[in-house]
Amino acid sequence: MKVAEIGEFGLIGRLAKMAQHAGNKYAEDKHQEAWKHLIVGIGDDAAAYFANNEIQLATVDSMVQDVHFSFSYMSWRELGWKSLAVNLSDIAAMGGFPRYALISLGLPGSTQVEDIIELYRGMFDIAGKFGTMVVGGDTVNAPVVFISVTLIGSAGEKKRGILRRAAAKVGDKIAVTNYLGSSAAGLEMLGKGLKFKPKFAKELRQAHLMPNPRVAEGQLLVEKGVKCGMDISDGLIGDLTHICQESKVGARINIDLVPVSLGVKECFGDKSLELALTGGEDYELLFTASTAVMNKVKKVIHCPVTVIGEIIEEKAGKVSLVDGDGRLINSKRTGWDHFKVVSTF
Amino acid sequence: MKVAEIGEFGLIGRLAKMAQHAGNKYAEDKHQEAWKHLIVGIGDDAAAYFANNEIQLATVDSMVQDVHFSFSYMSWRELGWKSLAVNLSDIAAMGGFPRYALISLGLPGSTQVEDIIELYRGMFDIAGKFGTMVVGGDTVNAPVVFISVTLIGSAGEKKRGILRRAAAKVGDKIAVTNYLGSSAAGLEMLGKGLKFKPKFAKELRQAHLMPNPRVAEGQLLVEKGVKCGMDISDGLIGDLTHICQESKVGARINIDLVPVSLGVKECFGDKSLELALTGGEDYELLFTASTAVMNKVKKVIHCPVTVIGEIIEEKAGKVSLVDGDGRLINSKRTGWDHFKVVSTF
């Protein structure tokens, strides 16, 4: 069977089972240090493990030319920004403090050195904003540009805790930071060369090419007692499905409550809700908590926090959509699968 | 200017300066946690930093199809082994304990799922030998197969120490573990379809496709007081040049002392010394220490340790070769530069 047939998530599922099996063998050995110190393995936004009672986080994300981005609409500097931003967002999704980045860069030999320097400028721009240092990596020859960024972070002492996907509880409210849909709208605009009012065009472009990871917000969530959260990279519905699968619960969302960006509404009208629900790459935080904790969170976070639904007792991973009157809405789309959506095969 | 013109090391030099500059800005901020905890940034086999007084190590290395390997001679399982082995070797080169691997895998959608499972089998084979766990990663669509492995390790408490490239001292002896040249000879054999006696063919194939990183040996070096070491990935002369540049010293090697594998001598005759000096990818350890420390090391390490020269006061980075009679030998080759050697441009 081909990867294109089982898709990215099907493949990850198979590989996670293999890793689980290998890990189980380690568990039998009391001297196995890696196993003893591991907190979270495959299946969350980042891996987590102890180093001398300090929780460490590690994540990696790759971007491939003409799969995840195109130089037809993206500058090298923007690529540098975004490649680190998506990893900062994974550390934010665990409620952690980003620290060290390792950059693995694949390049054709014909690439201009000045372009690579621009790429690194973009990375240093965002690294500086989030107290992150580039401490290593490698540079290799490749037929297309690819950039794999590994980001290592800290989540403080054991008692502080982290945000997990597997921690949603029945009765929890579901909330998101800020507004959704701008990044997917930006991709649509850039990819198809659509023209909008400069103000909106700028907003959508920025959302897709230079997203702002919610690092401070993720830290505040942990401090206020939130246990369950992740970042929205595959789309609201797809990512909420991940939370529900890992937590073995269901979820119900009121689509009338989903906060859609004004720019997306203005530019995409009827399509804007779909972009917000399934578009992906918003890099906002999606989290669940009791109403009491939600109220505490809203008081300290500087961006809007909107409750859009609740965690319910249901088949694990089932996400239902209802409208303001409680009527069920049918939606088969479950987010962005690189292997299915991308047309380069 | 193109990357192919300045080469991999030229590019890394430029980028390291940018990172240094960005780091200097951090140094002015006393609350900058990443800066405060950093021990080693760009320019060694792995980055090193403190997490609650425990030294942590992190490294990344990528392999790209038809640049670093070809499926015409390498199986998926061997690729899995080697992709982790080269990173284990970087942790060995710091004298550390490997712990957690993150795998970023680029694949065409037409790739068979069974092949990817074989790849992971190869990874789990070697991970199990070295107490390492696969704890995360991502899988992305790409026009060719690439695999970026990030490996995180520990180097224990602060007082234990690590192996550095920048720690060679004038008067130190230079030594290598085991024998050199087999991996480059293996690549030559596989790439050109050369035929040798089965015993030697197997040895060379194994050396190139399934190298054994010197993890236990690196740990023993640190325990016996060695301060300066790295692994041989770019070739003996190229890597010794790195040590000399970072340590601001020179080196003199007696080529008659360089331990060349018997299989390489048998199969490549006159060319075998060149393969041992500049071939690369041996993943043996290259280190420097006083004669007293060398003697301690030889007593505890299970593989051969051969002293091949000494660190001298010279222009930083200058490596001279002499023969058994002390006569100077001219060699302009300085190791393997991916951007120069690879013929796919």
- Count of helical regions of chain A: 12
CATH class group of the largest domain in chain A: Alpha Beta
Radius of gyration of chain A: 20 Å
At CATH level 3, the topology of the largest domain in chain A is Phosphoribosyl-aminoimidazole Synthetase, Chain A, domain 2
- CATH homologous superfamily (4th level) name of the largest domain in chain A: PurM-like C-terminal domain
Share of helix of chain A, binned: 25-40%
What's the mean pLDDT score of chain A?
92
Silhouette of chain A: globular
Beta fraction of chain A: 15-25%
Helix and strand element order of chain A:
HHEEEHEHEEEHHHEHEHHEHEEEH
Work out the largest interface and the residue count of each chain.
A-B, 90 and 90 residues
CATH architecture of the largest domain in chain A: Alpha-Beta Complex
* Quaternary structure type: homodimer
Structural class of chain A: alpha+beta
Unreliable residue stretches of chain A: 333-345
**How far is the first residue's CA from the last residue's CA of chain A?**
15 Å
